[in-house]
Amino acid sequence: MKEQRQNFMPADPCFAELYGSPKAKIATAEEIIAHMDEVGIDASVILNAGWSSQEACNRTNDYILDSAARYPGRLIPFVCVQPMAGRAAIDELERCIRGGARGIGEMRSDTQGFDMGDRELMGPIAELAVRHRLFFLTHASEPVGHLYPGKGAITPGSLYHLIQSFPDLQVVCAHWGGGLPFYALMPEVAKAMANTYFDTAATPFLYQPEIFRHVAAIAGADKILMGSDYPLMSPRRVVAQIQLLDLAHETVEMILGGNAERLLEWSRSGAS
Ligand SMILES: [Zn+2]
Q: How many domains does the chain have?
């Protein structure tokens, strides 16, 4: 699939915000694999994005699933749906599960216009994800600090609503959950986040390297998943931040692959 980015824009505010500028990078599967080879990455989770229309989700899911099938074991596909589309979203998710999807994401409830914690709307999606051991990966936004394109409004409160509504759902909060890991210092929050993980995508744009040490101490190193935000930035930049710290070897191993390997192995065992 090679489509012109302009084709997506009128129907999709999220796409227009992230990729309206011709300078904003979009990577093909071949480019991702080439960069993984260059950097020395064995496998990557490839994410779709939270498009506003179900139709845009379907078209891009096709590309994601096809790419993963062409690079088995190296590209692990996560797909997107528009929950507001109702039955069409469920049908598409079922199709993607048959096609090998291992997760849903990166979802954008703010630009997609729904409440992630809404049990009625999200119940059937969460139920499918739990039954087939799919992860649910959502964008996250810091409620404070500088603004940037795509920051959005998925702050720790809305992430926590999702986590509380669907305690069995395996949730990955992108970009360190907009600060949510800090609240793992509250015992009831730590307990509620038993199935919650945090990825490190775009860390160099957001935080000092010390965030790795602090979140490992507060929430646990087993909760941190390496994410890059490629092609916005190379995974090299996130790894460079980690290398500035004197983290325990086991901690680094967990973040750079051990945790993902463990979780994806669990997920694969539920594939049907
Ligand atoms: Zn994001």
A: 1
